[in-house]
Every structure is written in structure tokens, then in C-alpha cells.
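Contributing: when you submit paired examples, paste them exactly as shown. First protein:
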Amino acid sequence: MAVEPLIELRSVNKYFGDLHVLRDIDLTVGRGEVVVVIGPSGSGKSTLCRAVNRLEPVQSGTIVLDGQPLPDEGKALARLRADVGMVFQSFNLFAHKTVLQNVSLGQVKVRGRRKEDADRRSRALLDRVGVADQADKYPAQLSGGQQQRVAIARALAMDPKAMLFDEPTSALDPEMINEVLEVMRQLAAEGMTMVVVTHEMGFARSAAHRVVFMADGRIVEDRAPDEFFGNPSSDRARDFLSKILKH
């Protein structure tokens, strides 16, 4: 199907010193598409995810969001970042603020909403991710799975055009992983544009429109999940899958 591009990376290169971590990356994510990025550790997956909203600056190439090239810095970049929700491995909630305050803060500061309106929206989103009853607690009083669901609500509160997930379940205990993936599956079903870096192959199979497999800083395969898991075309992907799927 023809999809309207929302995120475009063209010939993107990124170095950490002498280490070439992203090599000539070309990737287009259509509006409403869920793209899952997988690959071995050190393949550049998280760096790719963080480059999309310039948390990692790149040395060359262009990144376009909704038709606009990413600004380098300043207010224009802050505005654009607000359009791209980011969920990290480590929650990144403010420990000294309640759950409700965590979700409302960006709406007031960046989106300019009145506190009452922000709080109303926050409560609705906390309900949507299944933690409405935790609104007045502090992050330390919540389980890891609950904290990550609050982080998703906080990102959604900004009404983003796209959501980036950088290994959102890798810091969680096994029994909490599914409660977070369930929220993400729901978002995918509702048409949210998502780029998800994850080791959760079940999620990749069930929720992704495309699986992007990275190795050594390059995109090696970019295919529909059935094709990728059923018949990977590269030795590198076959080797990776044979190690990860036998668990």
C-alpha cells in the first residue's frame, strides 16, 4: 500500500570518534506504520532511534519529519521534538514529582495548556495505559512496568505525530514486559506511527508492518515480518534469528 512518508532518513552517517555507527542509512516510515528495528548489540539500533529527533546529532545525511528537515537546535528543534514522543529503556520520570505531575508538565510548559486541562488529559491517558489509580503516587512507589506505562502516557500527552521506543522493555522483569507490550500493541492498532527498537520478537511478529534488521551500522533487511522471520534473505539475519529464536 502507498503510505505518506512521516519520517525519512537519507544517507545518514553517524560517528562516535573513529567508530562508524550508522552507515548510509536510508529509511522511510509512513504515517500510521509500525517499524520494528532489531539486530545484535552494537548494530546501531538505538543510535538510529535517537537520531530521529536529534538526541544524537548526525555527521551527514538528512532527516525529515512530516516534510520538514530536522532543525539543528533552538526553539524549532524543541517544537519538533514535541511532535516525536520518546520512550526510553530507563523510564526517565522525575522522581520528585507525582505520576500526574510527570504527565502534565510537558503539556503546560511546551504545549501551553492550562493546568486543569493538562491534568484532565493526563488522567485520561493514565486510565488508557491502565495506571489511573497511581496518579498521586511517586515513581519510586510504582513497579517498573507501571513506570514505563506512565512514561508512555507522558509521551502521548504531547499529541505526538510519531512515537519512538528505545528498548522499552529491556529493563523490566519478565512478568512486567507483557503489560507494556500490550499498551504498545493497542497504540499500533489505533494507527500511531511507531519506530520500536526491541528484542521482543513476538511483538515484532504481531504488531510490526515492517521489520528492519541492522548489523554493523547498516540496514541489512527491511521486510514484512512474515517474510523476514519465515525466510530471511541474508546470512547475517539467519544467524541472528537462529540464536535468538531457539530460546
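Second protein:
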Amino acid sequence: MAVWNPWHGCKKISPGCRNCYVYRRDAEFGRDSSVVTQTANFSLPIKCSRRGEYKLKPDGESIYTCMTSDFFLEEADQWRPEAWNMIRLRGDLHFVIITKRIHRFRTGLPEDWGEGYDNVTICCTCENQNRADYRLPILLELPIKHRTVIHEPMLEPIDIRRYLSTGCIEQVTCGGESGPEARLCDFGWILNSMEQCVEYDVPFWFKQTGALFKKGSRIYHIERKDQMAQAEKAGVNYKCGI
């Protein structure tokens, strides 16, 4: 998985942010995660080798963008137009932007955006029902060609059938919360989301269990290194028509 972090630092805005992994990691080095700064890799998509070739080459994998911040963060408004321009220039790469700030999507949007860039997927984070019902109507009304949804950290059962029924959501991902203060993720919630996706033939991916995982009547404490593997072993991922 390729990652491009043009800026670093964020502000907490909803329940899913409480145990943010960026804050947790920065704290280990005495860094204040609420301070937003441009990174040394800001221009990564257009950096070239001595031979004049792009260092970041298309290899079939998506470029996950702004994983230590939020692409639509207010403090990044001054940098976003240039970031959009790099995304436009690199039409041979596919950028995935995960956000809790879908309500700010139009701020600094390129003039040539039209109905969306083919090489951009916008992934809306919905950690609970309240945030799903606030963010997903916004996501669906915006001019975006590729839309996905992620429930991570998943904090409760979430019903998004009314949004899946539009046919505009290309994938749903679910995952638990990591870290020493992780909140519980119930396998029943995961299965419920998977069943919703099967009902509307939308791909579903159970990404990770999280550190505190309930299955049936038992609660498991799962080490970080095992959380993705345990999710894969659950065998509940779904591909359209399969």
C-alpha cells in the first residue's frame, strides 16, 4: 500500500477521533498532533528521479492520501489546491482520500473537477449511526465518481441500507479500534454490515478486529499484529455476485 501524507496533524471532531492513532503515535515523541504542518513529502506524486521519471509509479495499488491528517481539514485549505493539482497531473495513479469532513468537500475544489476525477475515490468515515446519517447524505449528493464507506473504529451497529440502495457506494469496510484504550468491536455488528452489503450487492471488507473484540459471549484481547489476519480468517468478506 502506497501512502502520501502531504500534511500532518489534525483536530478531533467526532467520537471516532477519541483514541486517534496519530495522536497516540505523536505522543510517544512529545509531538502535538493538533498542530498541522506541511510535510517533506508534500510533492511526492510529482517528484522525479535524476532520469526525469516519476518516483511514484503506477503499480495497480491505490495511493492512500492524508493518512495522518484529513484532506479537507480547515488548516490545510491553503495547500489543498496544489494537492488537487498534483492529483490531476498524475491521472495514472488512483488516490483514495478517507475523510470525516465530507461537509467541507467543496472548499478549494478544482475548477475542472466537474463530476469528479476518474482517479479519485472519496471514502467517508462513519463510526456510528449518527455520523452515518449526517455524512452519507452529503457524500451521495456531491459530484464524486467513486464513493466508499468505512466504519472504523466501528462503535455500534450501523444501518446504511437506504444509502446502499442508491447504487452509488462502491465498497463498505469495517474495522475495530486499536491501541491500549480501544473500545469494543462486536462481531455481530460486522456481520450485520456484511449482510446489508450482500443484500445490495456491494463489496464488503472486514479490515481488522481491533484490540477488544467480542464474538458471541466472549471478549478477546487481540494484539495489533494479529488484528488484520484474524479479520481475514473470519471469512466474511464479500465480492459482488460471489
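If you have annotations for the second protein, write them as plain sentences, like these:
The first strand starts at residue 2 and ends at 4.
The longest helix spans residues 187-200.
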